[in-house]
Amino acid sequence: MKKWLVLLFVVIGMLFLSAGIVSAAKTEALIPKLILDGKALEPPVPPVVVGQTVMIPVRIATSNLGYKVDYDNKKKQVTVSSGSKQLVMTLDQKTAYLDNKPTEMVRAPLLVSQNILIPLRFLGDSLGVQVFWDNQIKSAFLFSSGNAGNGNTEQPKPTDPPDGGLIGIVDPEEGNSSEGVTDGGGTEIPPTTTVPPVITGNLLEVRYETDVVVLKYDGMISPNAFKLDNPKRIVVDIPNAQYSDVFVPAVDLTTVSQGVFEVAGHEALQKVRYSLFGSAKSPRIVLDLAQNWDYELVNDAYASELRILLKKPVTDKSVYTVVLDAGHGGSDPGAISLTKRPEKDFNLSVILKVRDILARDERIKLVLTRSDDSFPTLDSRSELANAVQADLFVSVHANSYTAATNGTETYYTREESKEFANLMHSVFAPSTGLKDNGVRNKSLSVTRKTTMPAILLEVGYLSSKIDEPKLWTNELQDRVAQAIATGIKLQLKLS
What we know:
With 495 residues, this protein is α+β, with helices and mostly antiparallel strands. It has 9 helices and 31 strands. The strands form 7 sheets. The protein has a 6-stranded mixed beta sheet with strand order 27-26-28-31-29-30. A 5-stranded antiparallel beta sheet has the order 5-6-7-8-9. Mean pLDDT is 81; it is low at 16-30 and 146-196.
């Protein structure tokens, strides 16, 4: 009996010991590491993941790259510099200044145990450092370019990561698309960065949920997204990744150019296409749209999901900016009427009348390309409208052709201006009392180079015996000005 009791106590003791070991294994935290060119650094605080952003201590990372690091306690600013290059960041502020130019960080610098942490990706973007995050071993890898300050001038040799595999890469620059990316203001810029062909992510599935396209993956991905027109679409490029053998919906991209699935019942999204792009044959996801919608990328590294959130453009604004353009002017008289009067005078007279009507509405901010007999170039007119981020652009002209030609026309160039052109013409054309020649599509400089809905109104023909006498009357100009003001308010949905 005693032997059995002894054996029972031994078994119970072993069970408690095993449970303690398991419990300790479960509670032991994996401390993130910071590794530069294969050498493990020993920062006072380890890298941390805040939300979806990897944050690393800036001082030890940049000083080991050959940069000088200064901290102004009064201003709460950290300055990283080397020669003429300077990066200034402020605690709890997302805006940093790289060589005196403002740039946005995804997350503001943090102060942890008297150490400042900044986003890992931002370090790569601003200092030209290749940065990697291995999510399995929770470690940040930095690979210097060999050009930072007084640091190493030799190119670093490839370094194999610890067991678990290198599964994360962050591109030094946004954009590696063969179709171009945008600079944030809608202007396409050519790709400039060559990313090493390191596969760091495997795509497992793409599917549609309500207002969201979800991309499942393993490893780590760094997507580049941008919008394109004609036709409207959202493009998401995923460099350094590949479609896995079990990707869903299945498609053999060695035999077909792309996979496609239709989306039914969505106001804007029509279908989703997935294919390969560029010489590296990287994955590309394209969302085909029926109308212009905005988007937001949410890359959840913990869930291994990239979510492309579709967002309907918000039109509810308190103040709208409208650019009014009186055609020609100054040294450019425009068409000369039958009575030898220049078109530029007619155009300015109508625009000033529109201005006087709309100036009474505090919800509308008016910008005139000219308010006197001056001549802005065609490019400067569209550049002004784009610079002030106008909501609408309206240009007023009078036409000239053969003596037999008469009537009113409304012109647009880009598809997004068509709705505005039709609406304006419906109130504008009847106000003239002249022949209605309809809405026409034509490539005109001011309607082509502007980025907002833009139209050009040809009120009538100065070369016509029918139109010309009426165009110079205050009665017609007042009616036309009121109709233009009404059309603008209708387009902006202002009662």
